[in-house]
Specification:
This protein has a single domain, classed as ApbE-like domains (T-fold, Roll). 35% of the residues lie in helices and 23% in strands. Strands 1-2-6-7-10-13-14-15 form an eight-stranded antiparallel beta sheet, with helices on one face. The N terminus and C terminus are likely disordered. It binds adenosine monophosphate and magnesium ion (MG). The site of adenosine monophosphate has 19 residues, from α9.
Length: 358
């Protein structure tokens, strides 16, 4: 039978009088209150927030973790980013991608991560009807964004590259990669950041992180919500505006928000904007009236591949693709700054006046 604790003490027959007993109890209670008050004021790991920035994949990256003060988690993420860059970079000598591009048609053994990414890229090549194609690398080399500040390549050089482009020339068998054409090459710039963000989130969640974000040059992958169960409020950039100028915001909880935009890497020449999202069929930047495409999805690699794919496909075909997929929503922004949402996109009705904020 349940007995109140206080009666149990009283029954112990310690010789306390009633008034002494209550004085002692009051003293103990006040100690407890003082202790609890003290504990609340002391900063704890649970209320901690840590963040750091670095530079990887040619872009500024930022990590924020809530509810932990373990800087070594952030350090480990930066170390992992360095490792991924060392295998996935097209320009880093000795990387898996560099080896594939130097292979002159010979099979190359690559790491599990590179093989997984190439397999995903092939999947999106099929899904996008060839709009997403990592064998655009010969064009990427010719255009050389972001280093190119105004040289439009000769038509003949783009035409000459065209026959080396096409993911049907690329084969993956286990971890062995073969390019049929010795002058073909691959570039994972349209998909790698999303993949890396997913791996980092996996690592952090495995370490018990429940709240934070991974921002790889504007590719945002959130973990949980902000403290207090408040969703993250992610700003979507106004194309060609300042970095802090948002055209709208979106509230998310654990989702990835990835944008492909013309303004990210581009130059203007004679009134034409030349940018880094290339049409595999022509070798030229995609000019279809779009300025950016933002994808919301669970996995960031899907968002990354789809934002590039949908950009190349254009508003109508891109929207059709998004509407055909479960768990994916999109915002297409046209050159006239019109916003075109997929049906399930969580619109932020009062965002026009909201500042960019997380
Ligand atoms: P994102 O910013 O994710 O849209 O990726 C753009 C980057 O992907 C470019 O800077 C190129 O490295 C690469 N890329 C350009 N066009 C394509 C394409 N059609 N398919 C796949 N990757 C592309
Ligand atoms: Mg992409």
């Amino acid at each position: 039978m349940y007995r109140p604790l206080i009666s149990g003490i009283r029954k112990s027959g310690s010789g306390f009088s009633h008034s002494r007993f209550f004085l002692a109890a009051l003293f103990l209670l006040s100690l407890l209150v003082l202790c609890l008050g003290g504990c609340q004021r002391k900063p704890s790991a649970a209320s901690a927030q840590i963040s750091d920035v670095g530079f990887f994949f040619d872009t500024v990256v930022e990590l924020r973790l809530n509810g932990t003060d373990k800087q070594d988690l952030i350090d480990e993420c930066f170390r992992k980013m360095g490792d991924y860059e060392a295998i996935l970079s097209r320009t880093r000598e000795g990387s898996d991608v560099w080896k594939i591009n130097q292979s002159a048609g010979e099979p190359v053994e690559v790491s599990d991560d590179t093989a997984a990414l190439i397999e995903l890229a092939q999947k999106y090549y099929e899904l996008s009807d060839g709009a997403f194609d990592i064998t655009v690398a010969p064009y990427v080399t010719i255009w050389d964004f972001p280093n190119n500040t105004g040289n439009v390549p000769a038509k003949a050089s783009i035409a000459a590259a065209r026959i080396h482009v096409g993911s049907s020339l690329l084969h993956l068998d286990g971890n062995t990669v073969t390019l049929d054409d010795p002058r073909s090459s691959i570039d994972l710039g349209g998909i790698a950041k999303g993949y890396v963000a997913d791996r980092l989130k996996e690592f952090l969640v495995g370490k018990g992180v429940e709240s934070g974000y991974i921002n790889l040059g504007g590719n945002m992958l959130t973990i949980g919500t902000k403290p207090g169960d408040v969703p993250w409020n992610i700003g979507i950039r106004r194309p060609f505006g300042e970095a802090s100028d948002t055209i709208t915001t979106v509230k998310v909880d654990g989702l990835s928000v990835v944008t492909s935009g013309t303004y990210e890497r581009c130059f203007e020449k004679d009134g034409t904007i030349y940018h880094h999202i290339l049409d595999p069929a022509s070798g030229y930047p995609v000019w279809n009236g779009l300025s950016s495409v933002t994808i919301l999805s669970e996995s960031s690699v899907d968002g990354d591949a789809l934002s590039t794919s949908c950009f190349v496909l254009g508003l109508d075909r891109g929207m059709e693709l998004v509407e055909s997929l479960d768990g994916v929503e999109a915002l297409f922004i046209t050159d006239d700054e019109e916003l075109h949402y997929s049906t399930g996109f969580p619109r932020d009705t009062d965002s026009a006046t909201s500042p960019s904020s997380f």
